[in-house]
Amino acid sequence: MPTGSSKTEQHFAPVILAGGSGTRFWPRSRRKLAKQVLALDGERTMIQQTVERLSPLTEPTDIWVITNELLAELISEQLPEISKEHILSEPAARNTAPACALAAILLEKTAPETVLGIFPSDHVVKDQTRFAEVIRAGVELAAGGSRIVVIGVPPTRPETGYGYIELGASVDSASGVAVRRVKRFTEKPHRALAEEFLASGNYAWNGGIFLWSAKTLVEAIREHCSAMAPLLEEIAAAYGTPEFERVFAEVYPKCENISIDYAVLEPRSARGERGAEIYCLPGDFGWNDLGCWDALHEHASGCKPDEESKPNVVEGDDPLCISIDSCGNYVNAPGKVVALVGVMNLVVVQTKDALLITTRERSQDVGKVVAELKAAGRDDLI
Amino acid sequence: MPTGSSKTEQHFAPVILAGGSGTRFWPRSRRKLAKQVLALDGERTMIQQTVERLSPLTEPTDIWVITNELLAELISEQLPEISKEHILSEPAARNTAPACALAAILLEKTAPETVLGIFPSDHVVKDQTRFAEVIRAGVELAAGGSRIVVIGVPPTRPETGYGYIELGASVDSASGVAVRRVKRFTEKPHRALAEEFLASGNYAWNGGIFLWSAKTLVEAIREHCSAMAPLLEEIAAAYGTPEFERVFAEVYPKCENISIDYAVLEPRSARGERGAEIYCLPGDFGWNDLGCWDALHEHASGCKPDEESKPNVVEGDDPLCISIDSCGNYVNAPGKVVALVGVMNLVVVQTKDALLITTRERSQDVGKVVAELKAAGRDDLI
C-alpha cells in the first residue's frame, strides 16, 4: 500500500478510471482497443497522456488504474511504470461509483488521510502546467477534512451530453486558484436548460475529476450506498491474498451499477451549499473529453465550435494531402495519400478492416453503427 | 495478315483503341493501370468486355489493339486470344486519327475490302445482343463502297462533354436496323446548344464507333491528312520486318495529334448530307462511356440521371454495409466493411496507397488531383 509522496504536500493517490468501451471512435476504437488506449491525439495514448499529466503531482507508484479484463493487459504494457497490483480489472462494468469506492476503501485501510483523485483516462488537456496548478490546489483543499473538490470546466456551448455544476459562493483561497462552493449537480439537461445555464455564467461542466480524502469518500459511501459498502469491504479484505481474484469476481458484480455523481455527489449536495462542503475549482486548462470524431477535429484543428470555415484535419503517414475546394473535413487514413474534391465537414476514418463515412455533425451517431454490427453478429468488427 | 472470317458476311477487322490514360478513375486508375485494363464493372476488365462483345462478329485473330507502351504487356496478358503482332504500342500518344489510319493502311495492303471497325476499349454496353445486331448491320452497310458508318447513341441529357451527330434523311435498310444519313458533327457543344440538340430529337451522341472499308479510310486519310499519310505508309512498309520497331518509334511521333473525327469525319461531312455518304446507326444498346465515378454509380445502380433518391453502391469484398440515413453514395473499398452515417451522393474510393473523397457531382474533377500529384512530383501515385 502507498508510501508517502513528496510531490504534493499531502499524500495523493490518483485513481484513473479506464473501463470505458468508447464505441464512438469506431472503427479505430474496438472493445479491445477502447479510446483510452488509442493515440487519437499525438503519439502517446490517452491513458499515457493522463499519467504523464499527473507526473508533476505524484509518483507513478501511487497511481491506481481501474479498467476491465479486455483492456488490462494492454494498459499494463502501455504503463510499465504503474505497479501491476495497482491495475484492477473489474469483473463486470458497474459505472464509476463502485470503482471509486473500492479504491477509497483499499487506501483507507492504511492511509485514511490520503487524498484520492478520480481522473478519467480518455480526456485531453492542452495546458499541462495549469492542470497541475489546479489539481495541486484541489489536493490541498481536500486534505485533512471532509471536503469534496470537483473540477468545473468553463462551458463554451449549450452541450446536452454533459453534467453541469451550479456554482455557489466564492471562497477565500490561499492557492491563487479561484474556489467556489457547489450548489447543485444537474445531469444532461435538455437544450433550453443548457442554454439557460450557459447564459447565466453560473454553471460549469462536470469534468469527471474529483478529489477527496479516502476517509471522506468511504464515509460518504457508507452513508449513501449502504448496500454497496459491505460488498466492497469484503473485496478489500481479500486484497493482497490468493483469494482476491475469486472474491472480486464473485462480489463486485453484486454492486449497484451507478455513477459516483448520482451515488454520492448529488445526495451530498442536498445538504445545502454550506453543509455539503463541495468545492469547485476551475478546469480552465483546455479540457476536452473528445466525445466523438467531431470533437477530435475541433481539438486537432485548434478551432472554436462557432468558427465558420474550418481547416481540414488529415491524420495519416503521408504528409501530402490534395485538397480542392474542400474544408472542415476530418480524415484518418494511415498509410494513404488523401485527396479531397469539393467536400465539406465530412468525417472519413479507415482502418485495416473498415471504412466509416459520416459528417462532423452526425459523428456522435457512430455508436449506432457498432450496435448494428453487434446485431449482425460481426464481433470481429466491434 | 487477316484471313477470311465467317462470322460476318464481309471480312471484318475490329481495331480497339486502348491508348487512353483515364485519369478520371484515380485512385483506381493509374498510368500503368488505365481504365480499359480495370474491372470497374464486373469481374472482367473493360477491354476484355470489349473483346467479348465482338466475339459474335469476328474471330479474335482478326482483332487489332492499339495501345501505349505502359499498357501493352498487361493488355497482352488480359487478352491471350489476340495475336501479339496485332497489339501495337504507339511510341507517342497522337489521338485517334494516326492510330485508325495506321490500322487501315496495314489492312489495305492485303485486303482492301476488309471492313475496319473502330471501337473504344473502355465503354460499357448493357445489351450485347443488340450491339452485335447493330454492328453486323453496320458492317454490311460499310462493305464494298465508300460509305462511312457511325454509331449514334440516343442522348438522355444535355451532356457538354460529348460530340454530337446531326441526323439527316432516313435510308431504307434491309437489316431492320434504322439508318439515317449524317448532316454534321459538333464537338462538345456549350450547355444551351446541348439542350437545343436534346430537345430537337434530331441529334445523337457520337459513341466513338466507326465502320468503313480499309480502302475508304485510307483514301480519306490521303485526301484530308496529306502530311500524315506518307508517314504511316512508311511505318506500314516496315511492318513484319526487323526494322519495324525503330521505324515506328522514329516516324509515328511526327504524325499530327488529331482525332479521327476532326481529321476525317468533319471535313468529309462538308460534302453535304448526300455527298458525304456518312450513315448513322442507332447505338441503342445501353451504351455508357463511364466518364467518371458518377457515371459508374449510375451504371452500377441502374438508376436514371434524373431519379431522386438513389441507392448506395458499395463495391468491396465484404457483403455487409451499414447505412444509416444515407443514400446515393458510391464507395469502392476492397476488403473493408463500409459504414455510412447521414451522408448523401458522395464518392469515396480507397486503394492500397490512396483515399479519394469527393461528391458524385464533382467526380469529373478528379483529373485535377492527378495534375496536382504530378506537380508535386508524386509519380508513385499517378
Question: What does this protein look like?
Answer:
Two copies of one chain form a homodimer. By secondary structure, the first copy, chain A, is of the alpha/beta class. Chain A has helices at 46-54, 72-78, 96-108, 128-142, 191-200, 214-224, 228-238, 244-251, 260-269, 273-276, 293-301, 366-375, and strands at residues 12-18, 64-68, 87-90, 115-120, 124-125, 148-153, 164-171, 179-186, 203-213, 278-282, 287-288, 313-315, 321-324, 330-332, 337-341, 346-350, 354-359. Chain A has two domains: 12-288, Spore Coat Polysaccharide Biosynthesis Protein SpsA, Chain A, CATH 3.90.550.10; 297-381, no CATH class. In chain A, the strands form four sheets. In chain A, strands 6-9-7-8-10 form a five-stranded mixed β-barrel, surrounded by four helices. A four-stranded mixed beta sheet of chain A has the order 12-14-16-17, with helices on one face. In chain A, strands 5-11 form a two-stranded antiparallel sheet. In chain A, helix 3 (96-108) crosses helix 9 and helix 7 packs antiparallel against helix 8 (244-251). The longest helix of chain A is centred in the middle third of the chain and has 15 residues, at 128-142. Strand 15 (337-341) of chain A pairs parallel with strand 17 (354-359) of chain B.
Concise account of the structure shown:
The structure is a homodimer of 382-residue chains. Chain A is of the alpha/beta class and 382 residues long.
Keywords:
homodimer, about 375 residues, alpha/beta, Spore Coat Polysaccharide Biosynthesis Protein SpsA, Chain A, 2 domains, five-stranded mixed beta barrel, about 30% helix, globular, disordered N terminus
